[in-house]
Write a structure and sequence with these properties.
Length: 180
């Protein structure tokens, strides 16, 4: 029998999570901070957004499961989402296309990229539901664990934990989270 926390994780509405992620990403400074984490540390933005979503619902998973989620989604992302993104970015300055043609192709590729991002989120939710059923360390917290979860994830991405630090401006991300 599932406990209330596990029930919550298996019942997360995918569209509700997508909307939450889009709303949070649209907040001032959030997209730039997430892109900085992605570009400098290889963070998966969808995983960071999932950690924020869990935080928003006062839920926390331990570092071991964050690492497992990263490994699983990173494989999908490298072979799908990142290839689409790289193709879209390579179009900039193409000498064989007009600006109008570039814009149209980039628009179509962005639609495909967003579809891949949504699939990433769906997979994260599916894996999370599986992990949560077996995870006795799933905790409900009285305070927002967002910064703690993101710090754990960043430490996993860095090779020297002593040098791992959360950029000061990422705190804007947690402020944005509290406004949603």
């Amino acid at each position: 029998m599932l406990n209330d926390k596990s029930k919550f994780l298996t019942m997360i509405d995918r569209q509700q999570f997508w909307n939450f992620a889009c709303d949070l990403y649209a907040q001032p400074h959030v997209s730039s901070e997430l892109l900085a984490l992605q570009n400098s540390l290889g963070a998966n933005i969808n995983l960071v957004l999932l950690l924020a979503y869990l935080s928003h619902h006062n839920m926390m998973i331990d570092a071991k499961f964050i690492q497992q989620l990263h490994q699983q989604i990173d494989s999908f992302s490298q072979t799908n989402t990142q290839i689409i993104r790289a193709t879209r970015k390579q179009l900039q300055g193409s000498e064989t296309l007009t600006q109008t043609e570039q814009a149209e192709i980039k628009k179509q590729l962005l639609t495909v990229e967003l579809t891949a991002e949504k699939i990433e989120q769906d997979r994260l939710l599916s894996w999370l539901a599986t992990l949560s059923i077996e995870n006795p360390k799933l905790n409900s917290l009285k305070q927002s664990p967002c910064l703690v979860l993101i710090e754990q994830y960043i430490q996993q991405l860095t090779t020297l934990e002593k040098e791992a630090s959360l950029p000061h401006s990422i705190k804007n991300f947690t402020l944005a989270l509290s406004s949603i």
